Amino acid sequence: MLTVCPERLNRSGYALYLKVRDYVNNTADPLVLYKKIRLLCWVLTHPGNIQTKAIHVNATWGKRCDVLLFMSSKPAIELPVVVLNVEEGRDNLWTKTKAAFKYIYKNHLDDADWFLKADDDTYIVVDNLHHFLQDHSSTKPVYFGRKFKAPEKKPYMSGGAGYVLSKAAIIQAVRRGFKDSNKCRNGSGSGEDVELGRCLFNIGVEAGDSRDALGRERFHPFSPEHHLITGMLLKNTWFNKYSFYGVKQGPECCSDYAISFHYISPNMMYVLEYLIYHLKP
């Protein structure tokens, strides 16, 4: 039987059903999947967001990761912060992302099979990520997320929606990509997500398709209402222009097994926790 936990958005009568348990067979039992699929989650943050955002990730979805790390430039006693020697700022996000992956490769490569990057205002339904990854091998160089297309048509995954790399992808990125400036840009870049996409494309890491069997997206770069309520995402924007598979709004926007949403306030993180994991239909 399916246990369905709804988030109801009454403004247009839509409902987003986030399914987090499926006991059709034992392999889909969350406890079995947690043992089978080891997940490291790292969160891109900075000192100014530790108290306002990062601690709320730690108190909600982050606790379901096998390993949880916060990448910043200063230590914080409240959280497992990794101090990276990188100047803060949007212009340095690509440098910071490379430093984060290098740290993970050196210190945590054998602690996980899959490696998720998220922002400190991203909400991840970790159970649904496990559910999705059960059909994919971490020994294959691949990564998943909300697929966009760069101006030169190379695919990349939205940074805000989060993306997850296989162990094989991490190994190739650090050993082959980051050491070759012809494949992976040195120094700062445009966006960390665009630069990572170019880097992984150049070293042969596949940009996988994370949509469900009905073509509905699992990773979402905006809050639930922006995807579910038709008209909240305006046409002729960068989102429509760069979305790899086009944009759907309304109930067909989102998979029943949605994995992520972006621009989630701390208060909404606790609301989502309740609606997904505690509210009974």
Automatic annotation (TrEMBL):
Keyword Metal-binding: yes
E.C. designation(s): 2.4.1.122
Membrane topology qualifier: Single-pass type II membrane protein
Keywords of this entry: Disulfide bond, Glycoprotein, Glycosyltransferase, Manganese, Membrane, Metal-binding, Nucleotide-binding, Signal-anchor, Transferase, Transmembrane, Transmembrane helix
Location of the protein in the cell: Membrane
Enzyme class: transferase
MF GO annotations: glycoprotein-N-acetylgalactosamine 3-beta-galactosyltransferase activity; manganese ion binding; nucleotide binding
Entry superkingdom: Eukaryota
Main location: membrane
Pathway: Protein modification; protein glycosylation
Quaternary state and interactors: Homodimer; disulfide-linked.
Homology family: Belongs to the glycosyltransferase 31 family. Beta3-Gal-T subfamily.
Role summary: Glycosyltransferase that generates the core 1 O-glycan Gal-beta1-3GalNAc-alpha1-Ser/Thr (T antigen), which is a precursor for many extended O-glycans in glycoproteins.
Protein name, entry field: Glycoprotein-N-acetylgalactosamine 3-beta-galactosyltransferase 1
Lineage of the organism: Eukaryota, Metazoa, Spiralia, Lophotrochozoa, Mollusca
